[in-house]
User: Fold this.
Amino acid sequence: MPHKLRHIRIGLDEANAFVTAHHRHHKPVVGHLFSLGASVGDQIVGVAIVGRPVSRFRDDGITAEVTRLCTDGTRNACSFLYGASARAAFALGFKRIGTYILASEPGASLVGTGWRMVGETPGKSWSVPSRPRVDKHPLQKKMLFEKEIT
Assistant:
């Protein structure tokens, strides 16, 4: 029997708990604008956490960013959450939404929901001599996908 996905609004604590339990390479986030869950019945099968862009160059007041997207592997949950995140951001007045994925990830869920690849980053450490940090994220190339309001 096919499952019926529905979206629900969830708090950051609940979304971060799901990320802690299921994300392959990222830790929870500190803040957000909003979080969405994908559920089948009473079971949460995925979350999207949307915040301000991580890059200061993209933080223009009209751009939101999916900073975490995580599922338990439920079919179509990624596409469902990317689409719902974009609709929610546009309803809140944002003109653009973006996200970064690892170059090793296919991006099919993004392309399938109308996002387009607009750039790539080399993937590097956030640590600099004036502000040393311990890297807890993958340092490989990343692809930037965006969707703009139409």
User: Anything to note?
Assistant: Strands lie at 5-10, 34-40, 43-51, 63-71, 96-102, 116-121, 142-148. The CA atoms of residues 45 and 136 lie 25 Å apart. The mean pLDDT is 89. The longest strand covers residues 43-51.
